Every structure is written in C-alpha cells, then in structure tokens.
Amino acid sequence: MKANSLNKHLGALLDPDQQIPGLISLKPARHWLLVCLMLMILPVIAACEKKKTPREPIHRQQLTVFGTQAEITIYDNDTKKVRNAIAIISKDFQRMHRDWHAWKPGALVQLNKQIAQGKRARVHPSLLSLIKQSKILYQHSDGLFNPAIGKVIGLWGFHRDQFPAHTPPPAKAAIAKLLAKRPGMDDVLIQGSWVKSRNPAVQFDFGAIAKGHAVDLTIKRLRQLGINNAIVNAGGDLRVIGKRGQQSWRVGVQHPQGQGILATIKVHNDEGVFTSGNYERFNEHAGVRYPHIIDPRSGWPVKGIASVTVIYNKGAVADAAATALVIAGHKDWRRIAKRMGIRHVMLVDESGAVVLSPSMSVRIRFEAPGPSHVRLSKPL
Ligand code: AMP
Ligand code: MG
Questions:
Q1: Contact at 8 Å (CB) between 324 and 336?
Q2: Which of 308, 343, 313, 312 is nearest to 324 (CA)?
Q3: pLDDT at 216
Q4: C-alpha closest to that of 247 among 232, 266, 223
Q5: Which is nearest to 270 in space by CA: 243, 246, 245?
Q6: How far apart are CA 283 and CA 267, in angstroms?
Q7: Is the CB of 307 under 6 A from ligand 1?
Q8: Given the CA of residue 280, which atom of ligand 1 is nearest to it?
Q9: Contact by Cβ (8 Å): 270, 313
Q10: Omega into 369 within 30° of 0, i.e. cis?
Q11: Which of 66, 179, 314, 353 could in theory staple to 299 by disulfide, Cβ–Cβ 3.0 to 4.6 A?
C-alpha cells in the first residue's frame, strides 16, 4: 500500500460520518475498542510501509539555458525551500544567459563592440569574474583555452543555435588574416571594474567556460539557500554537493560515438564532471566534420579527439580544461592537464580508443559493451 492510500485509509477510519464496512453492525463499546486497537496498530503498519517503499525526497527541475537542457536535482525534505531555490536559480540562469551570450544582444555583445573600438568599458561583475578566470586559465593552458578568439569562432559559423550546420568552411585567407592579429587573453587589461583590450581583434566568446562558471555560481547559491545535497547539470556538465541520502551521486558520461552512456562515475561531494567533444556541435560539409572547438594556433577545428572528460572541484576550471585537452590531443594532454592541476582525465579518440589517467581509472565504470581499447597513462 502506498503512503497516500494509507493516509486516505486512515482518514476514512477516523471520519465519524463515514460508514465503514465491518464496523457499522458493531455495538458502541466494541466499536471503540476496535478503533483504539486499529489506532495502535496503524502507526506500526505505517512504519513498515515506510521501510518497504522509502520515498526519496528527490526534486528535479529542467531549465533551458546556454542552448542546452539544464537539470537541477535536489535531495531535501523541505519542498517549500526547494521550490524557492529553483525559482531563484531559474532567474539566475536567465540572467547569465542574457549577460554572457556571445552573439545575441546583451552585456557581452555590448562589451565586445566597445573593445573592438579600442574603448575602455565598465563591465558587469558577472562578466568581470569570467574575464579574470579566463585570463588565468588561458595562461595555464598555454593559450589553448582562448576565449579571445570569438571572431574566429564566428567566422566558422558556430555562433548559431541549430546543429549540425552544413555550410562550406570559411576561406583559408580569412582565417589566416584573423589569426595574424593574434587575439589572446593577455591583450586584455583589467583595472577595477574597467576592461580594455590593446588588441582590437579580441572578441570574447565564453562558450568553453560559461557552463562551468554558471554551475559554480549555482552551487554557491544553493548552499546560501540551505541546500546541501544536489546536482547541477548543464547539458552533461555538472557539479554535485553532498549525497543522495546515504549514497554518493553517480552520473553518466555520454558516449561520443553513440546515443547511450559510455561510463558512469561516482561523484564525491563538491566535485564536477565536465566533458568536451566533437559530437554535438559541429559543421558537416562535403563529408568532412568540423567540430566547434577551434585550435587557436591554426584557427581550424580540432581533429583526432572525440571527447575529453575531467573530474575537478571547480566547474569553470574543469570546463576550460576539458576544452583545452581536446585541443592538446594525444601529444600534449598530459602536460596541459598537469599545468591546469587536473588529475582525473578520460580521453576518447576518433577511433574509439580510450586513455585514462590512473586517478580516473579508479573512478570510472564502463557500461557494457565497453570500449574496445583502453590504455592507462602515466600518473599525472
Ligand atoms: P566546450 O563545449 O566547453 O568545449 O566549449 C566549446 C565552445 O567554446 C565553442 O562552441 C566555442 O564557443 C568556444 N571555443 C571554441 N574553441 C575555443 C578555444 N580554443 N578556447 C576557448 N573557447 C573556445
Ligand atoms: Mg569547456
């Protein structure tokens, strides 16, 4: 019997006007004796029912943000507190989406216009923290994570909502011309809340870090609102806090070459799992796939790596690192991961072969049938 129907049952028993079969023909004294007996037994039944089918206080809310489906999962008994938190987070997400959008009118588009004209611009605090973190991550990734290459990303036609695209790649000369101007985060100067670029070719596109930073801010907000057990998942990129009751949260990593789950990871308190890859957003033309991750050294989309998954306790760093490691590829991923302070890495190449760092290998569980080839790297 479910808790609801038990409650209904209890309500019916205690309602004096209700005619309950089996009780109507009883004499008053015996009637009361039976009711008392039932009242003693019912809490026991209720307790047993609870044990048999414990109902988890799980709340899920989907939100569309950053061109993807975000999902907040909260484990908490206080439904009112959860509803309030979800309403606040939903507004936060809308604000971030508007302020950080790379090509739709908003704070970032406005800022990009000003810096392209060589102007000093006063920036919104939420953009300022993205810029500050990006400058550090740009250096730690040896410039592979470079959100200053917005013009190159735009030239490739990746400032769009619908994927896959099917357009011819841009002219080689146009890419080379943009790249010759060497837009980089080191060109960006910050003074208080004022930002200026000494290079007008700089155009910000925070697509490789925005989800991570949004997830970090959301986790902070949840904690402020008294929620300590949750997953904030922005289209497969996520961070968790606390637990699911007595258990750790377990999450799936999408297969870069299929629809299903490649592996699952048990995520500890305050960790994030972020994946970058070539499988969702790309342009396909004349049989060639051009993924949305651009190698800033060549101005061309990455080749060879299907996806990189990292575990780290800060979303912004994990997000930027996953993107940088896709670009670093087989040759350089260990060096860049070390520089960025990342120890848990899974790299899947276009042939389907998997490379795991030793720390990742003890955390990941492959789903059947599993990859055909798995190799362990040297420790990071
Ligand atoms: P992600 O899915 O986190 O790997 O981010 C990919 C997005 O980041 C792309 O859609 C672009 O908007 C942007 N992006 C592409 N290449 C780079 C790069 N080398 N550095 C920083 N951002 C990039
Ligand atoms: Mg990223």
A1: yes
A2: 308
A3: 97
A4: 266
A5: 243
A6: 33
A7: no
A8: 2
A9: yes
A10: yes
A11: 179
Q: Could you identify the atom of ligand 1 that is nearest to the CA of residue 327?
A: 19
231 CB near ligand 1 (under 6 Å): no
143-167: burial string, b at 16+ Cβ within 10 Å, e else: bbbbbbbbbbbbbbbbbeeeeebee
What type of residue is 349? D
* Ligand 1 atom, smallest distance to 159 CA: 12
Supply the Cα-derived Rg of the chain in whole angstroms: 27
Percent of the chain with pLDDT over 70: 86
CA of 281, closest atom in ligand 1: 10
> Ligand 1, atom 11: nearest CA belongs to which residue?
207
Cβ distance 100 to 111 under 8 Å?
no
Token pair recorded at residue 179: 């790249």
What distance in angstroms lies between residue 235's CA and the mean position of ligand 2's atoms?
A: 12
pLDDT tens track for 219-244: 999 999 999 999 999 999 999 999 99
- Determine if ligand 1 sits within 6 Å of the CB of residue 323: yes
Q: Can you read off the two tokens belonging to residue 170? A: 């841009």
Alpha helices (H) along the chain: 3-14, 28-52, 79-100, 107-116, 125-140, 150-155, 172-180, 210-224, 315-340, 358-361
Mutation test residue for ligand 1: of 109, 155, 323, the one with most atoms within 8 Å of CB:
323
How many residues does the structure list for the chain?
380
Summarize pLDDT for 33-74 with one digit per residue, the tens.
444 444 454 444 444 344 545 688 999 999 888 778 899 999
Q: Is 317 helix (H, G, I), strand (E, B) or coil?
A: helix
- Which residues, including other chains, have CB under 8 Å from residue 223's CB and lie 6 or more apart? 241
Is residue 187 scored above 80 in pLDDT? yes
